[in-house]
Backbone:
């Protein structure tokens, strides 16, 4: 991986690639000094614990006090990123992307706002399940199970692309599997933090868009900063053996 990053930096420039974005599903121990734990946002969303942290956002489990303590996920722009024009713009793009898409295989968005200290946040559906990554083993998975998962991913991506949204960081960690009745699983694609939004209502600002995502799962077009298509987005997205691992 380090060699891949060095190659990209040499050929694209250090200011055009950002590889610190993708780790938002990685579990983190609760920080006793985390000022958001226990905070009630807008008199409604009670922050309970941190679920993970990525390049510019932190994700928390919260309960919606107006909906009989329904579990929700709150994604908050990190305090040290609020003055970063690119990070703030991508955060707004994620809100815009999730607001445009209404599909059962894409995580739902409920609300957005700003904390008392000026950190933007998004309130999203809580998915009680596991990431696709957990099912990818050397032994593989059952063909029927894999086929159902891939079909749901395809329907979700089709819906997103019809709304002008390109995910740009699709990988097994960003595909959640929610247990249904019996052995069925419902796919929920999450983390549109670096999505590209066509005809966005959010100002493009003065900063150029970076080559973003997880290097090991980028398609050749994405690595080369060429225009992306539906095929580009899914080409390496759920591979067990990434093209650049």
Residues:
């Amino acid at each position: 991986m380090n060699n891949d990053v060095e190659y990209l930096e040499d050929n694209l420039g250090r200011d055009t690639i950002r590889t610190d974005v993708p780790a938002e599903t990685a579990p983190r121990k609760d920080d006793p000094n985390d000022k958001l734990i226990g905070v009630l946002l807008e008199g409604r969303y009670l922050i309970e614990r941190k679920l993970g942290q990525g390049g510019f956002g932190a994700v928390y489990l919260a309960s919606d006090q107006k909906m009989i303590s329904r579990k929700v996920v709150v994604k908050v722009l990190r305090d040290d990123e609020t003055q970063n024009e690119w990070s703030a713009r991508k955060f707004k793009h994620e809100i815009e992307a999730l607001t445009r898409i209404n599909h059962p295989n894409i995580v739902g968005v409920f609300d957005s706002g700003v904390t008392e200290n000026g950190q933007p946040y998004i309130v999203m559906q809580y998915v009680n399940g596991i990431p696709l990554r957990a099912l990818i083993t050397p032994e593989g998975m059952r063909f029927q199970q894999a086929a159902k998962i891939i079909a749901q991913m395809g329907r979700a991506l089709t819906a997103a692309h019809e709304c002008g949204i390109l995910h740009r960081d699709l990988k097994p960690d960003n595909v959640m599997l929610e247990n249904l009745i019996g052995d069925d699983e419902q796919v929920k694609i999450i983390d549109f933090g670096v999505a590209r939004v066509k005809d966005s209502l959010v100002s493009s600002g003065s900063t150029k868009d970076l080559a973003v995502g997880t290097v090991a799962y980028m398609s050749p077009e994405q690595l080369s900063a060429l225009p992306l298509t539906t095929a580009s987005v899914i080409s390496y997205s759920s591979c067990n053996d990434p093209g650049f691992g």
The radius of gyration is 18 Å. The chain has one domain: 2-234.
